[in-house]
Amino acid sequence: MVSALVAGLAGCAGGGWTKEEKALVEGQGAVLRVLTVENEADLAVLRAKAGAVRPEEVASGFYALLAEKMIATVTSPEQDGVGIAGPQVGISRRIVAVQRFDKEGEPFEVYPDIRITATRGTMEPGPEGCLSVPGRRGEVLRYRDIDISYISPETLQTVTERVEGFTAVIFQHECDHLDGVLYIDKLVEE
Predict the structure, then answer these.
(1) Among 98, 103, 27, which Cα is nearest to 67's?
(2) Which residues contact 96 (CB under 8 A, 6 or more apart)?
(3) CB 126, CB 139: distance < 8 Å
(4) Which end of the chain is less crowded, N or C, counting CB atoms within 10 A of the terminal residue's CB?
């Protein structure tokens, strides 16, 4: 798994999705395996900084498959989450799937090459858990008003969007994964 991560990061610089990334996603069923802190090799992937996703990669059929499987994974009865990041399924790239509680129907959407570009207001405490840290929960300080930028899968252009409320909290949690940060690193002292 760690060697796949290194190869994946090398592929970011060289162009396109790597053979290792494709094998990982195409070699599994509809639901991907979620990496956990309980496994040493998984933890190395979870703690690594994720690489970029480029517009031409978003335009590929592989991106569509990855996005579909990330949503299937986070919504599966075994996980039942509200968000998941690429590193959590072994893809060390800047991609997250988030449930949009701020939109009608509360859809899950996938955001390639995502970054938080602005925060507003003060941080507030709230309960968090994580699919990669099973059996634990804790209080974390998060902003409730942020801006995100990402590559639009429709236009392949970078767009910026303001997100507020609980959905903003989810985006911060998932974007932390892209920098190798877990919510347990940010727990509020009891």
Answers:
(1) 98
(2) 83, 84, 85, 86, 110, 111, 114, 171, 174, 175, 177, 178
(3) yes
(4) C
* Record: fold of 2-186: Peptide Deformylase (3.90.45)
φ/ψ of 187, rounded to 5, equals -60, 140
* Contact in structure between 36 and 134 (CB atoms under 8 Å): yes
Q: What is the pTM of this model?
A: 0.91
**Sign of the dihedral through C-alpha 85, 89, 94, 99:** negative
Residue 170: phi and psi, rounded to 5, are: -60, -45
Q: CA-CA distances (angstroms) from residue 31 to 27, 141, 176?
A: 11, 31, 23
Angle at 149 between CA 132 and CA 158, to 5 degrees: 125
Residues involved in catalysis? 174
Give the model confidence (pLDDT) of 146-162 as tens digits. Answer: 999 999 999 999 999 99
SS3 21: helix
- pLDDT tens, 69-91? 999 999 999 999 999 999 999 99
DSSP string, 76-104: STTT--SEEEGGGGT--BSEEEEE-TTST
